Amino acid sequence: MTATMTVHVLDLESGNLRSLYNALTKLGYAVKWVKTPSDGLEEAEILLFPGVGNFGHVVTALHTKGFLEPLKAYIASGRRLMGICVGLQALFAGSTESPGVEGLGIINAELEKFDDSTKSVPHIGWNSASIVPEGASEIYGLREQSKYYYVHSYRAGLEVPIRDGWTVAIGDYNGEKFVGALQKGNVFATQFHPEKSGVAGLRVLRAFLQGDLYSTDSMTVTDISNGLTKRVIACLDVRTNDEGDLVVTKGDQYDVREKSASARAGGKVRNLGKPVELAERYYLEGADEVTFLNITSFRNCPLVDTPMLEILRKTSETVFVPLTIGGGIRDMVDPDGTKISALEVASTYFRSGADKVSIGSDAVLSAEQFYERGEVLTGETAMETISRSYGAQAVVVSVDPKRIYVASPDDTKHHVIKTSRIGPNDEQYAWYQCTIKGGREARDLDVIQLVTAVEKMGAGEIMLNCIDNDGTNSGFDLELIQDVKNAVHIPVIASSGAGCPVHFLEVFEKTTTDAALGAGMFHRGEYKVSDVKEYLTEHGLLVRNESELIL
Ligand code: 1PR
Question: Which end of the chain, N or C, is less surrounded by CB atoms within 10 Å?
Answer without folding.
Answer: N
